[in-house]
Every structure is written in C-alpha cells, then in structure tokens.
Write a structure and sequence with these properties.
single chain, alpha+beta, two-stranded antiparallel sheet, 7 strands, binds adenosine-5'-diphosphate, binds magnesium ion
Length: 240
C-alpha cells in the first residue's frame, strides 16, 4: 500500500471521528443549554429547579463520557504502555471507584479474586473496560441487585468475569454488541462496549457474553497466561 493512500485513509478516519464526536456532544450540550435557560425564570418552583439542575449535570456527564470513550477509540495501540497488571489490585480499584454509583442503584459489588492473578496489558485501558462493564451491569439492574467480579485461572488462561442479576439480553441483542451506537438506554452512547471490544482485543484478550433475559448477564474476558520469559521482562520494565 502506498504511503499516500495510508495518509488519506488516516485523514478520513480522523475526520469521521471528529464529525461523530461533535454530533454526539452537541446533543447533551443543547439539552443543558435549554435547562439553564429555564432556570432563569424567577417564578420557577424549587422542585423544578432541582430537577433541571440534576438533568443538566447528567447531560454534562454524558458529554464528558462521550469524549473520553472516543479518545480511547482514537488512540493507537501502543504496546509500550504494557505492564504487569496485578488483578487483585485492579479489581480492588474498580470496586472502590464504582461503589458510589453502585450504592446509588442499590447494587452490591462482590469480588472473588485469585491472589496471584496477573496479565500483561495497558492499565488505563483495562480500567476503562472494567468500569464500562461494571457500569453496564449496574444499569441493567433497575431494582438493585448484585455485581460479582471474579479473576482467576482457567485452563491455562486468565479469566476476568463481570456477572450481574439484571435484565439480560436476547440472542439478537448479543449479536449486535460492540457495534457503534447500539444502545437501549435513553441517555446511552453505545460506545462503552465498542471501547471494551477494541481494547481487550488489542491486549490479546477474548470476550464472551452469556446472558439470559430476566436472569442476568456474564461478560468473560480471557487473556493468555503470562509465561516465565515475559514475566521477567515485565518485572524489569516495571521498575523503570
Ligand atoms: P450504553 O451503556 O451507553 O447503552 P454500551 O456500549 O455500554 O452503551 O452498551 C450497549 C448496550 O448493550 C446497552 O445499551 C445494553 O442494551 C446492552 N448491555 C450491555 N451490558 C449489558 C448488561 N450487563 N446487561 C444487559 N444489557 C447490557
Ligand atoms: Mg455503557
């Protein structure tokens, strides 16, 4: 392939991405602007005021999330960011970060993690993936429930799973996962899983989904087990 062609292709992807981001971010901004305008009314009662403020914040959060997710998609895969990731630490971090959101939804986060479990990958990306999956799990349980995070060895591989007791998905829904803009939520972006599929594959991982409508869903991420040789390499590079 000619260099010119590659440049043209890059430009095409970048401008497409820019167009999507501006389109997606404009909606929540327009909605927020509308609410702020309504707040200007001196006769507005206190209850409405609180509601509009709440909705404005929610829309601003959505704008922020869209930008974060798009930036992740746009970042090239850079194996220089690879490090030895200790899954007990990573899962503990996710639990702490997601707990406030879980409590708000009456959801309990449980963990079952093998103490020695580790993989090689990009820490920021793994964290973002796990956060996206835990967020979806929590959002799937309208009346509260339980999210179980596990990490352990299975048949010479490392498996991380995120299980919920939520609404579940149909076969058709599952087959569409990971494509752009597949959201069933009023304020969804459909970008979360796209990021998860991209990042996990980039780390050499595999994603499996098991779901049953009205029962719940399990997302399993499978990674190659670290060999002695690259284990030593990563131990060294971590010291730097
Ligand atoms: P968003 O959360 O913004 O809708 P995602 O890409 O994170 O976008 O998810 C896409 C869709 O996949 C969701 O709208 C939902 O319909 C479905 N989904 C994802 N995770 C789950 C889950 N744990 N339980 C049920 N449905 C899910
Ligand atoms: Mg999501």
């Amino acid at each position: 392939i000619k260099a010119e062609y590659i440049e043209a292709e890059k430009l095409r992807v970048v401008s497409q991405l820019a167009a999507s981001v501006s389109h997606e971010v404009r909606n929540p901004l327009t909605v927020t602007r509308g609410f702020i305008q309504l707040l200007d009314d001196p006769n507005l009662d206190q209850k409405k005021k609180v509601e509009f403020l709440h909705l404005s914040l929610q829309e601003l959060d959505r704008a922020q999330e869209i930008i974060t997710q798009y930036l992740t998609l746009a970042k090239p895969i850079n194996r220089d960011h690879d490090a030895l990731l200790h899954l007990p630490e990573e899962i503990d971090y996710i639990t702490r970060v997601m707990n406030p959101f879980a409590l708000l939804h009456d959801v309990e986060i449980m963990t079952e993690v093998h103490a020695e479990c580790q993989i090689v990958g990009d820490q920021q990306k793994l964290r973002q993936c796990l956060m996206n999956l835990v967020k979806n799990a929590i959002e799937a349980m309208e009346n509260g429930g339980k999210v179980t995070l596990t990490a352990g060895y299975h048949e010479e591989q490392v498996v991380i799973s995120i299980r919920d007791t939520g609404v579940g998905m149909s076969k058709e829904q599952i087959s569409l996962l990971g494509g752009a803009y597949q959201s069933t939520k009023d304020t969804g972006t459909g970008l979360g899983l796209m990021v998860v599929f991209n990042s996990i594959r980039a780390m050499g991982g595999k994603i499996e989904v098991e779901s049953s409508e009205g029962v719940g869903t399990v997302f399993s991420l499978t990674f190659p087990k670290i060999t002695e040789a690259n284990h030593e390499n990563y131990n060294k590079s971590r010291i730097v």
